[in-house]
Amino acid sequence: MTSTNFEIKPLSSQDKSKLRRQYLFAVLFLLVASAIFSFIYFFVIKPDNFSVVPIVMFSVFLLIFTGIVSYMFWNTYIDLKRGIKYCYTGVITDKRVDKHTTKSRSYNTRMGTNIRRKSSRTYYYITIDNKEHSVPYSKYAKVNVNDKVYLESSPKNKEVLAFTILEKNQNPVTITTNTSYFAPFKSKSITKPMRQSEIDLVKKIFFNKVRRALIYIAIYSILLFTLWQGIFIFLIPVIIAFIYTSIKLLILINKYAKFNRNGNLKQITTVQVTDKLTMTSNTSSTKFRVMTNVENIDVSEKIYNKLKANAIIELHKATFLKNLVGISMDGGTQYLENL
User: Which residues cross the membrane (predicted)?
Assistant: First the structure.
């Protein structure tokens, strides 16, 4: 992998105009937020009718908000004052999606209502030769791992000023010594009997799914018994969930019976890795997702770091159940319990 070509260049007039637009966005954001804060202060809190505690809490939130807006102004000012931009030319070695979820609760003492709100924001990152950069989704969606790109960003605000794909990663298929063309990889599948260790692994996965389904069915049953004498409209979603989970469980049991009746076979599919990304969140564990020309799979960090774009791997799946049992690569077969 080539090292990143890093340069520092002066801001162009177009770059400066783009950065100055950040001032406009910040001012508009400040005006809208100020109107909201003023409405809450004069029409909701009403200082004459409330104790000092809500007013103090409101003031703290206002100070935090003012600090965030000031930070945005300051970063843009520093970038314009320095008059430079960072330019990176290199190969994308990784991609990341970060989903940040926040929960808030508001309570109206006069109305007696307790309102919960949940909001989430998604951030997109690409790593150019081991240096991570935040980019808009419009840029993120156009690139894959091993693409060669050129990126310009402001040093302080990390605003993307320019983004160009210099070379797309392809899968070359050579015809002769002098010519080559690009063709999609053709997957192939074969069926083989499972070893006893693989059968035991499938059995373990099956009973884990059955146990989880039975827990949900028990919860729905308790809710149905508890709410049966209540308003019928509240029972409808519980009844739907109960029926849906029960049907899924019956289908799973039927597929497992077919898997046993047909000789405990596995399907080995040869696929090509087309892309990969890391999925992070403040509410769930990190996932390492690998995209192939057939499907997307979640693997361990160890396997994720070993796989490269265009790598040819084999996916081992139980027939009928379609459970991923293992992955074969250059280092041998890694089974699900080791993934």
Answer: 23-44, 50-74, 213-228, 234-253
List the domain boundaries for the chain: 5-167, 190-338
In single-letter form, the type of residue at position 162 comes to A
Q: What is the residue type of 178?
A: N
Would you state the structure tokens that stand for residue 73, as one six-digit string?
A: 């102004």
In the Cβ-directed half-sphere of 18, how many Cα atoms lie within 13 Å?
17
Q: What is the fold, at CATH topology level, of the domain defined by 5-167?
A: OB fold (Dihydrolipoamide Acetyltransferase, E2P) (2.40.50)
| Residue 269 amino acid letter | T
Roughly how many angstroms between the first and final C-alpha of the chain, as a whole number? 26
Give residue for tokens 């954001």: 29
Give this prediction's pTM.
0.74
Strands 296-299 and 287-292 come out as antiparallel
* Token representation of residue 113: 């209502």
Residue 320, Ramachandran bin (φ over 0: left; ψ between -120 and 50: alpha; else beta)? left
Please state, in angstroms and rounded to a whole number, the distance separating the CA atoms of residues 67 and 76.
14
* DSSP helix/strand/coil, 213: helix
Tokens of 252: 């799973």
Residue 20 CA, chain-centre distance (Å), reads: 31
d(CA 272, CA 188): 11
Nearest to 105 by CA among 115, 96, 95, 113: 115
Is the Cα torsion angle 167, 170, 175, 176 positive or negative in sign? positive
SS3 304: helix
Going from the first residue of the chain to its last (339 residues), give the mean pLDDT of each consecutive group of 10, the final group possibly shorter.
75 89 75 71 60 65 76 85 93 93 58 59 91 93 93 91 89 41 76 92 94 95 79 78 95 96 94 93 90 91 87 93 88 70
Residue listed under structure tokens 């996965």: 205
Phi, psi of 65 (to 5 degrees): -65, -45
pLDDT of residue 42: 66
Q: What is the signed CA dihedral for 28, 32, 37, 39, rounded to 10 degrees?
A: 150
